[in-house]
Specification:
mainly beta; four-stranded antiparallel sheet; three-stranded antiparallel sheet; flat
Amino acid sequence: VTGNKHDLSTGERTSLARKYTPGGKLKWHRSLADKSVSGSAIDRRDNIYVVGNDDNMDGFVSKYSRSGGHRWTRQIISEGSATDAAVSADNSLYVIGSIDNGRNWYLAKY
């Protein structure tokens, strides 16, 4: 599960990623400071990919292991958004987003 929190009084933005067991118990929780999450995907090894934008409005993708360990974060595009992610049958990660204030779209494969 991913989500965002924006404190209007301080302007602080925090996003989160959580994993639950099939029975609904919280398995792990990660906070992503200064980021806004817009999508996520899970690969065949249960790695979790989270996409969104940072405070500079640069698109990013972060990878977490099935146990919640942070593997990496990469900037996808400067001054563009990362909107959503999907994993294909061959376990490739695809990220879609926009540039030029939403006038143009891109699709990136990892």
